[in-house]
Amino acid sequence: MFACATLNDVVSHTRVSVFVPNLHDGHQERGPHRLVVEAGKWASIEPGGTPQPGDLVVECDIATPGLIDMHGHFGLGPYALPMDVPLAQGTTTLCSQGDAGLSNFDEWMTKSSFHLLRPFIAINIGPEGERLLNCLGNVTVDFDQRVAALASANPNVIRLVSVNLSERSLGPADPHSMLEISLEAARSSGLPLMLALAPDHVMSIDQQICRLRPGDVVTYCYRSQPWCLFPSTGPRPALKEALSRGVLLDVAHGSEAFDESIAENAVKTGYPPFIVSSGTKTAEPGHRTPLPIARVMQRMVKVGMSLTSVIAAVTRNPAQVLGLADGSGDFRLGGRADMTALITGAQHWSARTILAGGVALI
Predict the structure, then answer these.
(1) Residue 78 shares a structural domain with residue 126
(2) Range of the domain at 43
(3) Domain identity same for 197 and 156
(4) N- or C-end of the chain: fewer Cβ atoms within 10 A?
């Protein structure tokens, strides 16, 4: 059995060998494998065989690359989870969705560093990140260049620009101006924009998605009205055009940002998400507790995605968006050695981290 631990609780091995009954790399199931880690990277990946003395034998339905959760909340802010929580649930890489901005990025870095869970951030256009109320109220026209400068100075951590145009984030701010500042910050820094849409009555959803560029991400993609991208008549024509030019969809299930019937109709009509993320955060009074990433994966299989597509959407696809060139999200020789055990046989799916950067959590 394996249990998750913090950095102080584990022993870092220069060489680790692992035997799994069923490897799934986001392309296909590949059956039993024996894998060897040296200095945090995959040194050997051999199909078949049997466990050898000293192997870590992983008992699970499927061993996947370490899960990459593109939208979660940790480090700072009203939603922040302790970093041990997603690590214990099978996530090895997490992107903090807008939890810090210009004013508190250094504090976020302090709280998020030196941990087995590898942190990235979508830096918020709001100066103090995504707060409960009016987090965009102090944004001025020079913020695009200031955010771009911060991103350029921290390329190993800041991988997207983030803006949430919800009414509670906007306060009195103008959504058109906030979207333009966000887009300019993303353009100047060469990063994708992750957009949480304003509701239709605040700013036309069609106007918002028409502004997005290839590689930009619409998060909370399966919400119902007044943010709905997939009305009963089918996907919005503006959305179809945006997707055809390379705009990406992200689930970000969260506590109330997912409508199962909308997701099912979207997947059935050929509009699955590119990214399956959890939107994980602390529970809010009066709201459902957000699901762990494995449960979100289960819901996406339930609405019609194939298991292979879902695994790709929490491994290879987010690795691509984050610009990770170290083998994350895949099993390949010389790549970063992250591994998650996925349990699909029970009523509720679960996951646990086996390796994080080559460190075995035992």
Answers:
(1) yes
(2) 7-64+327-360
(3) yes
(4) N
| Conformation bin of residue 350: beta by default, left when phi > 0, alpha when psi is -120 to 50 | beta
- Considering the domain architecture, whether residues 210 and 309 belong to the same structural domain is answered as yes
Residue 70: count of CB within 10 angstroms of its CB: 32
- In sequence order, the 6+-apart residues with CB closer than 8 A to the CB of 129 are 76, 77, 98, 99, 100, 101, 104, 108, 135
Pull the structure tokens for residue 109. 């870095």
45, 72: one domain: no
Its pTM stands at: 0.94
In a domain, 1, yes or no: no
**Would you say residue 269 lies in a domain?**
yes
**168, 205 Cβ separation under 8 angstroms:** no
Reading phi first (left if > 0) and then psi (alpha if -120 to 50, else beta), residue 73 is in beta
Indicate whether 300 and 333 sit together in one domain. no
Indicate whether 29 and 108 sit together in one domain.
no
> Into how many domains does the chain fold?
2
> 347 and 285 share a domain?
no
- Classify residue 84 by burial, with Cβ atoms within 10 Å: 0-12, 13-18, 19+: middle
Whether residue 139 is found in the same domain as residue 209: yes
Measured from the Cβ of residue 333, the count of other Cβ atoms closer than 10 Å reads 10
Per-residue pLDDT tens, the chain, 362 aa: give them. 333 333 333 444 579 999 999 999 999 889 999 999 999 999 999 999 889 999 999 999 999 999 999 999 998 888 899 888 999 999 999 999 999 999 999 999 999 987 899 999 999 999 999 877 899 999 999 999 999 999 999 999 999 999 999 999 999 999 999 999 999 999 999 999 999 999 999 999 999 999 999 999 999 999 999 999 999 888 999 999 999 999 999 999 988 899 999 999 999 999 999 999 999 998 777 778 889 999 999 999 999 999 999 999 999 999 999 999 999 999 999 999 999 999 998 899 999 999 999 999 86
User: Is 2 within the bounds of a domain?
Assistant: no
Contacts (Cβ under 8 Å, ≥6 apart) of 303: 260, 263, 264, 267
